Amino acid sequence: MKFPGTIKSKLPQTGTSIFAVMSQLANEYNAINLSQGFPDFEVSAELMGLIDKHMKLGHNQYAPMPGVPLLRERISEKIQNTYQIKYDPDKEVNITAGATQGIYTVIAAMVRDEDEVIIFEPAYDSYAPAVELCGGIVKYARMEPPDYRINWPEVARMVTHRTRMIIINTPHNPTGSILKKEDLLALQHLTKKTDIVVLSDEVYEHLIFDGEEHESVCKYPGLAERSFVTASFGKTFHATGWKMGYVLAPENLMREFRKSHQFVVFACNTPVQHAIAEFLSTEKNYRNLHKFYQKKRNYFAKAIKGSRFKIIPCYGTYFQLVDYSNISEENDMDFATRLIKEHGIGTIPVSPFYHKGDENRVLRLCFAKKEETLDKAAEVLCKI
Ligand SMILES: Cc1ncc(COP(=O)(O)O)c(C=O)c1O
Fold first, then answer.
1. Looking at residue 16, what is its pLDDT?
2. Does ligand 1 lie within 6 Å of residue 200's CB atom?
3. pLDDT (tens digit per residue) in 55-87
4. Beta-sheet strands, E only, within the chain
5. Model pTM greater than 0.85?
6. DSSP type of residue 198
7. pLDDT tens digit string along 38-52?
8. 122 lines ligand 1 (CB under 6 A)
9. Which of 17, 121, 202, 203 to mutate to test the pocket of ligand 1 (most atoms within 8 A of CB)?
């Protein structure tokens, strides 16, 4: 069947996401899938049991629009214990259907026609299309390899009277880099006495390694007062399929967010919210995540050390970048496709994280996998 009229696409440049493309190809070729960012190990049995419990207790109808009150209280306590700042659970915390919906709704609530939004490339793929769907104009700043730091004087030169929002992401997908105290201070200084709103995507807040501290905007009063923070329980509890997350913001920004949120999704999965509220009351359920993933990062890095891939340091997230310039001159799309078809291993090329498809001969590998999966992957990678 086909629509007989003319479709004026709102996103003419956008195709299927690179994650879906590579995962589908990996499935087709029965390849080891280190492409899409999801764990291949089980969710906590206790957490699954809690969902079952809350379904049986009858928590199966619409939750309140901002989210189950007990979960918002638990989140507020967690933030206060972690960053020593109080977000009012009624007015400044909102549950979302994953961080993706939080990000989209923040942008929908804030960005008007012709507003400029600064994002940093390589960038997670949902930011730019969300801005464009809302009529905004994306301004791209670059994080240069190999260490992917932000050039703040360059960002300062990009700010105009039209700049409505700056989107940051730390720890960073796809590079595994993290923002440091001096980055947050630079952003705080840059936005002082402006109407610029910050969207801080912190979905990997608990996946940070080598004793580094996560630099949340929540720790900087001058940023917290102008920021939306997006977070994801999918990442924190190895349950990306549940699509459950939250947004934090000062009361007056949250009021605007909710005007859109109620018409985007209205409310999120009720039994999962109750279950997570109960699970969050035990701190160890999320505090030790960095140790768990640091072990995996080290395990995988050691296993591929003998390969011809060059490891780019990963300080956070569950992604390892590797440079394959010693192996091939092919572009990363062709190389990643060939890895699936000829070697049975799925990875993500990094060029689609740039709007102009910049090519650095770098691939992203997800190490949120069982040791046996990482062993199999390393065996293949060492032979290439
Ligand atoms: C940087 C970043 N932000 C947001 C998301 C989306 O999170 P969720 O699955 O909770 O929608 C992801 C998922 O990969 C991500 O990597």
1. 84
2. no
3. 999 999 999 999 999 999 999 999 999 999 999
4. 32-33, 93-96, 116-121, 137-144, 149-150, 163-169, 197-201, 227-232, 245-248, 310-312, 319-323, 345-346, 348-349, 362-366
5. yes
6. E
7. 898 899 999 999 999
8. no
9. 203
Exposed, middle or buried, 84 (CB in 10 Å: 0-12/13-18/19+)? exposed
| Mutate which of 22, 127, 173 for ligand 1 pocket (most atoms within 8 A of beta carbon) | 173
Q: Which atom of ligand 1 is nearest to the CA of 103?
A: 4
Does residue 236 contact residue 171 with C-beta atoms inside 8 Å? no
**142-to-24, 145, 153, 162 alpha-carbon distances in Å:** 29, 9, 12, 20
Residue 76 in contact with ligand 1 by CB distance below 6 A = no
Q: Which atom of ligand 1 has the smallest separation from the CA of 169? A: 1
What is the C-alpha separation between 75 and 89, in angstroms, rounded? Answer: 8
| 146 band by pLDDT with thresholds 50, 70 and 90 | confident
Q: Report yes or no: 167 and 201 within 8 Å, Cβ to Cβ.
A: yes
Does 17 have pLDDT greater than 90? Answer: no
Report how far ligand 1's centroid is from the alpha carbon of 233 (Å). 10
**What per-residue confidence (pLDDT) applies to 222?**
98
Amino acid at 78: K
Closest CA to 41 of 300, 284, 240, 298: 240
Average pLDDT of the segment spanning 156-179: 98
Q: What is the mean pLDDT of the chain?
A: 96
